[in-house]
Amino acid sequence: MAFQFRFDSILALRCRERDEAGREVGKANEAIRRVDEQIRDLQRQRDEIRRLAAGMFQNHGDGNRESPNSHGVSIDRALQQGRYDLQLQAEQIGLRSTKETLLKELQRRRDVLVNAEAEVKRLERLRETQKSEYRYLELQREQAESDDLTTARLIIDRRNRNRSRT
């Protein structure tokens, strides 16, 4: 009779739950990566706007700063760029808030994964313990059977010897 772990179905279920928890951690990491990428993109756009705005007001080689309007710089355009920069900044703040929420969710999912992994390991240890116990009991049973056979043979041999003497 082969060893049958009576919690095999529970172990299989816990393994599936652990694997699903691992996938969920991966999804959370991917979401955080995408948000980080969006934050970097917004920062690049803000840097570009600032670079363009600074270019509108650059020195013209003589060390004196010219008034913006003397070279056709549009105040409306500068204000528009400033408003756009503020809009991008607000989006970054929103994304950072989203990232904080995602980081909390990632930690929650990691905790679920750790607990699921611990449960799987507990069941695997239980299976190994029961399997070892089963093997030990099987060996004892086989040894008892072997001892019984040996004893029976000795008894039969003694009877045969006693009969042959008589």
UniProtKB/TrEMBL annotation:
Gene Ontology cellular-component annotations: bacterial-type flagellum; plasma membrane
Subcellular location, record wording: Cell membrane
GO biological process: bacterial-type flagellum organization; bacterial-type flagellum-dependent cell motility; chemotaxis; protein transport
Coiled coil region boundaries: 25-52, 99-147
Superkingdom field: Bacteria
Record keywords: Bacterial flagellum biogenesis, Bacterial flagellum protein export, Cell membrane, Cell projection, Chemotaxis, Cilium, Coiled coil, Flagellum, Membrane, Protein transport, Transport
Claim: Transport is one of the keywords in the record: yes
Signal sequence extent: none
InterPro entries reported in the protein's UniProt record: Flag_assembly_chemotaxis_eff, Flagell_FliJ
Membrane topology qualifier: Peripheral membrane protein
Sequence similarity: Belongs to the FliJ family.
Protein name per UniProt: Flagellar FliJ protein
Organism encoding this protein: Neorhodopirellula pilleata
